């Protein structure tokens, strides 16, 4: 992590982080422009390079920061005693939405990173690439799967819900209606529906 960057005022840090998250989420590593990032953040390009050295340095920092931040919120947001799969997912989504109140594009950035195809960017995030998915799998695995009907394929259900949640978020950004609290309510309505359909 870049310690000099954290000497800046929090408002300026967040402005730079949010600008970079937005641009990398929209265009991936290849198409994100440092000109667009500094324009969005309202800073000079010299300042950006002073703290991060290069576009790759910024991307690497941003991924590390996002993984750490999201990991902290999700692990702290899910009760270790919870065994209801749908409640675990609800708690995970609530934690994510708290993050997105401060960093609206963080989840979209992380999603975009999963499909990154530029080799230098891939190498920069390789060490942490599976951290969040592994943590989420551990949390979901504390659920009591005996609650599901016998014909339910857990892996397919879990993947379907992930696709649904990612799709809902993408749709809300596309139609400019993204609000974390409203998206959380919408996600919960899908979780409640699927719980009724899949539990005994």
Tell me about this structure.
With 200 residues, the protein is an all-alpha fold. It has ten helices and no strands. The protein has helices at 10-31, 34-41, 45-52, 55-77, 85-102, 106-113, 119-125, 131-140, 154-174, 180-198. The longest helix has 23 residues, at 55-77.
Write the layout of secondary structure elements.
Layout (H helix, E strand, L loop, with lengths): L9 H22 L2 H8 L3 H8 L2 H23 L7 H18 L3 H8 L5 H7 L5 H10 L13 H21 L5 H19 L2
Provide the descriptors you would attach to this structure in a database record:
single chain, 200 residues, mainly alpha, 72% helix, elongated
Any idea what the radius of gyration is?
A: 18 Å
Broad shape: elongated
Chain oligomer state: single chain
Which sheet architecture does the biggest sheet show?
A: none
In the predicted model, the low-confidence regions spanning at least 5 consecutive residues are none
Number of strands: 0
Mean pLDDT: 96
Give the % helix: over 70%
SSE order in H/E notation? HHHHHHHHHH
């Amino acid at each position: 992590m870049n310690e000099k960057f954290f000497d800046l005022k929090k408002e300026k840090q967040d402005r730079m982080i949010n600008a970079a998250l937005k641009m990398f989420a929209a265009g991936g590593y290849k198409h994100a422009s440092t000109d667009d990032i500094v324009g969005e953040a309202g800073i000079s390009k010299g300042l950006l390079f002073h703290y991060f050295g290069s576009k790759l340095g910024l991307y690497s920092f941003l991924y590390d920061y996002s993984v750490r931040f999201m990991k902290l919120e999700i692990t702290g947001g899910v009760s270790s005693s919870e065994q209801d799969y749908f409640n675990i997912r609800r708690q995970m989504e609530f934690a994510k939405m708290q993050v997105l109140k401060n960093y609206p594009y963080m989840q979209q950035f992380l999603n975009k990173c999963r499909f990154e195809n530029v080799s230098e960017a891939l190498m920069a995030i390789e060490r942490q690439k599976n951290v969040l998915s592994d943590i989420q799998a551990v949390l979901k695995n504390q659920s009591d799967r005996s609650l599901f009907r016998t014909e339910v394929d857990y892996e397919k259900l879990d993947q379907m819900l992930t696709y649904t949640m990612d799709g809902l978020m993408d749709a809300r950004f596309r139609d400019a209606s993204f609000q974390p609290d409203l998206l959380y309510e919408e996600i919960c309505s899908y979780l409640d529906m699927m719980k009724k359909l899949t539990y005994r």
